[in-house]
Amino acid sequence: MASHIVGYPRMGPKRELKFALESFWDQKSSAEDLQKVAAGLRSSIWKQMADAGIKYIPSNTFSYYDQVLDATAMLGAVPPRYGWNGGEIGFDTYFSMARGNASVPAMEMTKWFDTNYHFIVPELGPDVKFSYASHKAVDEYKEAKALGVNTVPVLIGPVSYLLLSKPAKGVEKTFSLLSLLPKILPIYKEVISELKAAGASWIQFDEPTLVLDLEAHQLQAFGAAYADLESTLSGLNVLIETYFADLTSDAYKTLIELKGVTAYGVDLVRGTKTIDLIKSNFPKGKFLFAGVVDGRNIWANDLASSLSTLQALEAVVGKENLVVSTSCSLLHTAVDLVNETKLDDEIKSWLAFAAQKVVEVNALAKALAGQTDEAFFASNAAAQASRKSSPRVNNEAVQKAAAALKGSDHRRATNVSARLDAQQKKLNLPILPTTTIGSFPQTLELRRVRREFKANKISEDDYVKAIKEEIKKVVDLQEELDIDVLVHGEPERNDMVEYFGEQLSGFAFTVNGWVQSYGSRCVKPPIIYGDVSRPKPMTVFWSSTAQSMTKRPMKGMLTGPVTILNWSFVRNDQPRFETCYQIALAIKDEVEDLEKAGINVIQIDEAALREGLPLRKSEHAFYLKWAVHSFRITNVGVKDTTQIHTHMCYSNFNDIIHSIIDMDADVITIENSRSDEKLLSVFREGVKYGAGIGPGVYDIHSPRIPSTEEIADRINKMLAVLESNILWVNPDCGLKTRKYAEVKPALNNMVAAAKQLRTQLASAK
């Protein structure tokens, strides 16, 4: 019985690629140094899978930034502003598209479906001259083959590539991206022909957009694309891989009728309903790659349950045609549990990271073939039973408090307009008030202090002193820049979710459980294994300390319940909304303690609220109801004079704008600049927004420093659709990933632009 892995984490067990990328970007190492690290990681990944007995091992899932950008490079779809003149795309052009450079901004970055991974959005139009400009897929196949590993090269499918793209600036928004299919398929044919010539026997096309709510003409595009590719694909086994949700009956019918396709990959963790479609109609002689091992969470697979599912499918598709697989790429999970030395044995026994999931896939394949590893299955069953019965998972008081939430929608008693008036009397802010989102640059020295404190190399007194000094530096800088509402810079936090999880019950933490978010940015999601509560205040000391250093308003900085949920590895033994309500109650306690401590502005970030939106429209209303409700629970008890902010970033918000309004925050700051001010279009179309709003005026994920004029131009665009008395001026997101040499001039220009516009507005009266 065969086994398959959809994709694998790229960063390395100790984030080796992250450090190599950042060293290269900082011009401390060469391209050759970066390529050497990358080659070592690829070799290690391929060998690991081969040693584990995996038959279908993927290649070309490694990336220096993201796989969609790799496809853009392969197709030569480089926007003209990057000055690329043809030929093989090198690091300069590639990273300029991803990160921008001194003279031009980066391409838009957005979330990959409903995950916390991001991709660079292709910018396309009728005039794009596609050309075969990156041979990465073929090169990596040959590289693996030279190491004795015959891999399955993976490409983003042509239809999904176009459906994930957007019309370039200046191109009509109504432009049909699918009309470009005849222009990109010749390049796909070149790549396929080269892979065949190099000896490939299988090829995998990732077509994840098949799980979305697609219109008839979009589904027809899949049929047209693979019919066109059929003759080129002749002689190859072709796998079409889908993931993240069920297939609709129409999408399933489209999938199984594709020309020249040998195998279909489906997510049977988040797409259990697809099983019924398979049982009712599966093409004879085709392969089913059954994704029964969860690629998006860290819980050990229930092997007995998965084996039962596989045996039922085996009766439908045939013993020789069933391949055991992961539900999606393992990119979304941590790398290897072996590196976790501080997790206690009980919790560790409940988990499986990418390396362990590879072993699970192969164990299931062998069991299906009648070669069950009895000891492995027995150990797994014992761990499953231990998790269900462990007293540390359940807290009756928390469960009762969460159950008592039913019956109220938890709205503040006064409407937002009256609250804003009361807050303005207390805060006395100028028109177009300036602020930042929360974090300031995390210097090497700051990281060293936190690291040494965690390792007990410095005392708590020394740690507190160092953090206070950093806060004072950040406060002084903001006062010098004349920012109106300050932040303390979050020097005590490595990560906005991890910081809170460490102080809440029901959470566990890893040492090396890193997951790639974008580029070199990695996060270490907490593990929510049990009921959640707040034993003691988490941020009050630091916020009060910062407020004591200034007479200006100081924001208390919290992460909201939906974002903590969506950016954690969440328990899978109860509905997600139940866990979210528990977190909301914990954050509510913190909000009320901050208010008691004299903090008049409290920001509760919900950066990931949009990210958790289900991929199916039919499931949107239920998710948004409990997600928005969870946010309102956190601040329902505060006074009218306490200003509640929230922040959202790097998603398409236009389709949930009414839910954002329903959150009833006093002020929302929201990503805007990198997405070509897409957010503003919703207000042009007549949506009325009465609360404070700060669409980001510059992109913090790029090292580029925007000019005062550029920022003023963005603010003017906002003033064309938003009232000046509700508009705030702020960056897109937190500043932790930037350097002070970039932050100071950018914020200086931001404040200068706000003052310039204030003067113009005053003179226009």
UniProtKB/TrEMBL annotation:
Pathway annotation from the record: Amino-acid biosynthesis; L-methionine biosynthesis via de novo pathway; L-methionine from L-homocysteine (MetE route): step 1/1
Cobalamin-independent methionine synthase MetE N-terminal domain boundaries: 3-316
Leading EC class: transferase
Signal peptide segment: none
Required co-factors: Zn(2+)
CDD domains: CIMS_C_terminal_like, CIMS_N_terminal_like
Known EC number: 2.1.1.14
Keyword Zinc on entry: yes
Keywords annotated in UniProt: Amino-acid biosynthesis, Metal-binding, Methionine biosynthesis, Methyltransferase, Transferase, Zinc
Reaction equations catalysed: 5-methyltetrahydropteroyltri-L-glutamate + L-homocysteine = tetrahydropteroyltri-L-glutamate + L-methionine
Domain annotation Cobalamin-independent methionine synthase MetE C-terminal/archaeal: ranges: 432-755
Membership in a protein family: Belongs to the vitamin-B12 independent methionine synthase family.
NCBIfam families, per database record: met_syn_B12ind, PRK05222.1
Function: Catalyzes the transfer of a methyl group from 5-methyltetrahydrofolate to homocysteine resulting in methionine formation.
Name of protein: 5-methyltetrahydropteroyltriglutamate--homocysteine S-methyltransferase
